[in-house]
Write a structure and sequence with these properties.
The protein is an alpha/beta fold and 492 residues long. It has 20 helices and 16 strands. The chain is flat.
Length: 492
Amino acid sequence: METGKILIVDDENLVCWSLSKMLKRIGHAVEVAATGEDARLKIDNFKPDMVILDASLPDMNGLHLLEECKFQNPSMPVIIMTSNYHSDLAFQAFKLGAEDYIGKPFNIDMVERSVQKIFVKRDVEKDVEPGQKILRKKHQQDQLVGNCPSMVELFRTINACARNDCKTILVTGESGTGKELVTHAIHYQSARKDAPMIEVNCASIPDNLLENELFGHEKGAYTDAGNREIGVFEQAEGGTVFLDEIGDMPFNMQAKILKVIENKRFRRLGGQRDIETDVRIIAATNQNIERMVQEGTFRADLFYRLNMMRLEIKPLRERKKCIPSMVEYFIERLNKEYGRSVRGVSSEALRVLMGYDWPGNVRELRNAIERAMMLEQSKVLSVDHFCQERRAEFMKVGDCGCGCNSDAGAPIVLPPEGISIEEVEKEYIRQALARYDGNQTKAAKCLGLSLDTLRYRRKKFGLENYPPPKTASLSSSKDEGDDVVSSCAAPG
């Protein structure tokens, strides 16, 4: 590991002294700054390879200086220190690009390990092509966001798994929570990032083909085996094998995966010799794997090996404090994707999003934001495009809390034979238009929709001419915002 130049920015003399002594002992050149302004000068003159920065400085917020450092030199690692640990502060630090986050009082050995790992990572990355760095950055940032304590802890565990080259990792969580994103983050932050990461969905490959997919086969191993083919474990040599939905893996295959973990060897179908392998195995499942072990449908010995390092992703309903930052992130991403300039969501819309339990988790939230952005014409996403996320929940009481004021009457009961949601939606729009004689403003208000949304859905369901215009009046009043045109009766 090459040594480097490190700038310590802290107004506590004892902290600066102890860190300087440790860093110089392991071969680094060290400079100290007590204020943000002094740090700016030393960054320009000393040109450090790393900054260890206190979050609270006498003359400025340390996070502002962190942002300046990353703007000037995005590749320069910054370690944030603070005496007041706060999850939001930690999240902001990581979001702005901090490499690590250390609370005071700290263990000097822990800081030394963090510094050394960062420099080792720098040395490994020196020869990586720019295109590969861009790819890693994309995977590291892709939709894995949140500022609640459970997410901050998850980020820390991901970093620990990546830096320490954990060979077996289990990722658990409900569908849509982001298990694949966690896997990508571990791989692309680790020393294995330049080797392949290959995903195998254990639920989508037939049982009789899964072994061939993982281990490959020799020529003549079975009737159609005309040539030798290598499997995933050989293709991913030096990298990561991601076994998604491992709870659906056949019981006999579980024993073979256990053997690979324990012996770091496998054998192709029809092969006569073992092949050594060096891969990280990350397994993921949305099932209750402990219960499966108790029921005998998942091997206990394989579970214990995988469970050595476990990352459990909480469902979104248990980390609703993350929703505002997720909404902000998805809007930013989708603005770039669709060429939009949406600034955010209204306070009413955010209240609805925070009140909904999101059974589909982060995936469902992203889809809701995307749908709203497709329908919304203004710069702020209104509540109208999110009411449906909670309407079924509140249909029994007749008010979803966001202006629908729907006349519920008796509770809606799902028929035994099922029902088409689109037909239900069409029928409610038809009834609202009939109730108000085609007055779109009143119908939209009754349904909790914007006027533009009602017009769009009216056209979608072929209700533009519903209800049929009356022919008895020579003039008709027009409510503000309505577009019903007056008509004259034919002369008698």
